Amino acid sequence: MEEDQWDLEKDLSQCLNKSKYADLRFVVGKDKDIFYAHKLLVSISCPYWRKVFYFKDWQSVRRSKFIDVLVPEIESNLFCQFLEFVYLRKANITHENIFGLQELSVKYEMPELDEYCSKSVYSCLSFHNCLNFYEKTKLLGLVKWSETILKYIEKNSASVINNQNCLVSLKKETVHEILSLQKLYVPEIVLFRSLINWAKNNQQTNSKHSQEFTLKRILRGFLQHIRLDLLDFPDIQEIRNYDLFSDQELFRTAIGLAKKNSFQLPTKTRANNLILTLDHNK
C-alpha cells in the first residue's frame, strides 16, 4: 500500500505544472506567469475552483487545448506553492509566504491548507520576527497561531527581548500581554531599557495630540513588571535617572542588595555611595 501511495505521489509530482495532459493554464500575477494544471485535480482539492469549473457555463469558452484562467491578484510564488499543495499535499512554507498561503486557504475554501499552515507556524518563527508575527495573527483573528507564537516567545523570552528596540513598534496591548506571561524571563535592566524606548516612541507619536503623555504616564501598569530586587547597583542608578520609581523604593532595593553582598563591600564603594545618596534624599 505504501509503495502504491509513493508511486501516486511520484506520478503527481511529474504532472505538477507540466503542459502535457494539462487542460488549465493559470495566468498569474502582474507578470502573467503561466502555471499548467488539471481541472479535475484542482477541482477535487479546491471547492472554489470546483464551483468555477463545474457550476458555471464553460460552453462559451473557446474550445482549445487549454482553458486560460486569469489570476492577476496573486503573486506567482504563492500560487506555485498553492498548486504544489493541491498535487502533493505539501508546500515549502516560510516566514515570507505563510500569511499569504493562509489567505489563499480561506479564499479557495481549503481547510487542509489552513491546517497545514497552522502546523508550520512554529518553524517559521525567529527571535526577530515573532513579536510582529504575534501582532499580525491577532489582527487577522488567527487564535491558534497567536497561542503558538506566545509559547515561542515565552520559551525564548531572553533572546526575543534582547535589546532596547525590540518592543518599539508594538501596540500597548501586545506589550502588556507579553509582560504578563508567567514564565517570561528577561534580565530586568534589559526589560527596563526596552520599555523606556517603547514609551519614548509612544511619547513622540502622541505628542502631536497632547502634552500629557509623559514617560511615567505611558508606563503606568508596566513598571510593576520590573523586579527591583533583581537589579544590580549600577542598574539602580540608571533607573533612578528616569524618576519613575520613588527614592524610597530604590533605597529599600539598594539596602537589600547591600545585605546580600555585605561580605564583599568596602566602606567606600559606588554601591555604598548610592545608598548614602538615596538615604540622604529620603
Automatic annotation (TrEMBL):
InterPro entries hit by this protein: BACK, BTB/POZ_dom, SKP1/BTB/POZ_sf
Q: Which residues form the BTB domain?
A: 22-95
Instruction: Note the PANTHER family from the entry.
Output: BTB (POZ) DOMAIN-CONTAINING 2B-RELATED, BTB/POZ DOMAIN-CONTAINING
Q: Where is the signal peptide?
A: none
At the highest ranks, the source species' classification is: Eukaryota, Metamonada, Anaeramoebidae, Anaeramoeba
Source organism? Anaeramoeba flamelloides
Q: Name one Pfam family in it.
A: BTB
This one is known as Btb (Poz) domain-containing 2a-related
What domain of life?
Eukaryota
